[in-house]
Amino acid sequence: MPFYQKRGIVPDKRHTQFRDKAGKLYSEELISRNGFSGIYSNLYHVYPPTGINRVGELEDMSLSKINNRHQPHHLLTKKILSKNNSIFARVPLFYNNDLIISKANIAEDMDALYRNGNADELIFIHHGKGILKTNFGNLNIVPGDYLVIPRGVIYNIQIEEEIEALIIESFSEIEIPDRYKNKFGQLLEHAPFCERDIRTPKFVSPIQDQSIELLVKLRKGLQLYEYQHHPFDLIGWDGYFFPYTLNINDFMPITGKIHQPPPVHQTFKGNGFVICSFVPRLFDYHPKSIPAPYSHSNVDSDEIIYYADGEFMSRRGIEEGSITHHPMGLPHGPQPGKTEESIGATKTNELAVMIDTFEPLNMTKEAHEIEDDSYPFSWIKK
Questions:
Q1: Is 125 a member of any domain?
Q2: Which residues contact 251 (CB under 8 A, 6 or more apart)?
Q3: Which residues pair with 95 in a beta bridge?
Q4: Cα angle at 307 between 305 and 310, to 5 degrees?
Q5: CB contact at 8 A, 275 and 353
Q6: 6 part of a folded domain
Q7: Residue 3 lies in a domain
Q8: Closest CA to 316 of 332, 329, 335
Q9: Secondary-structure breakdown of the chain: helix, strand, coil percentages, each rounded to the nearest 5
Q10: Mean pLDDT across the stretch 32-48?
Q11: Residue 336 resides in a domain
């Protein structure tokens, strides 16, 4: 979310001499988007951020596409038993040219640092607690947090309680929808959240005189580097480019007299996709309203829903951690009896994250292994 932030000590003027008490120059680093035409921040290091001691081998992380049937899918992600740190715990489930969607059980701290060189990351914290440590400062992690980590941010995650997370890697910038902002970039009065809900990094003392390994994510895999100096040696930074968190529970739902379509729940966007938050809310108040959503033909989008908590009024057989995938070209809607059953209900306690993509999604073999094979036939009335 681009609004001006300043941490630590910065010089009065950019790109000028800035020295410590002994007269040694600090090293300025510009991190910018779209070349020099997008948002940016200026970072001030004790040491130049460019010193590399060693370059390791490239570790292949190719995705495993399968030729699956064109049908609705239901994944039981509780069946994913593997646990690791915040990078190697990721199990990719869906992908296309715009994004990768993964699930992770993060049970270990990461010794090295990590930088995604190709994608912005959005990490939804379903369960668990920890600290997101970055070169911009630290952010506490609690359940319900969306961690928005722009590409190029260096970080690792330290665990306090084992974390279960949904991870989206976007090959474009993850942004707040334009319709929520005025021409100055401020969130509007009628937006479902505001700047007060956004948490930005807490500045920490610089780490000096320490080498560190850094894993950089590339399209083809992970590349290891050993840097001469720790990149968390900042004495200050300012600008519009930084990681932040927004908690799903701070999303204030927009409701109406009749059923509202998914765009009222939109929280983020990227090229080729949107992300929506379904949160506890009052249902419609027209005397003849039907709280359950109407059937919908996905003509131009694939729909992913990650079910986090509560009861899911339009679905049966869904459990916490379930993912449903409804591909474009097929209608989907409430399962038998759910529409009639919803009439008269006044509120819902559901908590879910929806991702709509405008290009078809590929499914990985890891996703196929945890699939509920009976789901495509769950609309048959019994």
A1: no
A2: 192, 193, 265, 267, 277, 279
A3: 100, 362
A4: 140
A5: yes
A6: no
A7: no
A8: 335
A9: 5, 45, 50
A10: 95
A11: yes
Please report, for residues 75, 83, 212, 247, the alpha-carbon distance to residue 205 in angstroms, rounded to integers and kept in the order given: 43, 31, 17, 26
Say how many domains are in the chain.
1
Helix/strand/coil (H/E/C) assignment for every residue in 99-166: EEEEEEEECCCCCCEEEECCCEEEEEEEEEEEEEEECCEEEEECCCEEEEECCCCEEEEEEEEEEEEE
For a pLDDT cut of 90, what percent of the chain falls above it?
Answer: 79
316: domain CATH number? 2.60.120.10
3 state DSSP class of 338: helix
Query: Is the CB of residue 26 less than 8 Å from the CB of residue 235?
Result: yes
In angstroms, the CA 214 to CA 225 distance is: 5
Tally Cβ neighbours within 10 Å of residue 141: 24
Three-state DSSP at 282 gives strand
H or E segment to which residue 339 belongs: helix 338-342
pLDDT greater than 90 at residue 2: no
Lookup result for tokens 């681009």? 2
Q: What is the average pLDDT across 117-146?
A: 97
Q: If you average pLDDT over residues 276-291, what whole number do you get?
A: 90
H/E segment holding residue 366: helix 365-368
CA distances from 286 to 9, 289, 292 (A): 56, 5, 13
What pLDDT shows up at residue 345? 85
Q: How far apart are CA 211 and CA 144, in angstroms?
A: 34
Query: Tokens 């495509």 appear where?
Result: 376
Q: 141 near 163, Cβ under 8 Å?
A: yes
Q: In whole numbers, what is the pLDDT of the chain averaged over residues? A: 93
Q: Three-class SS of residue 77?
A: helix
Rounded-to-integer distance, Cα 120 and Cα 240, Å: 15
Burial (CB count within 10 angstroms: exposed 0-12, middle 13-18, buried 19+), residue 265: buried
* Confidence tier at 116 by pLDDT (50, 70, 90): very high
Can you give the residue range of the structural domain that contains 269?
249-377
Alpha carbon 207 to its chain centroid, in Å, reads 27
Which of left, alpha, beta for 235 (phi over 0: left; psi -120 to 50: alpha)? alpha
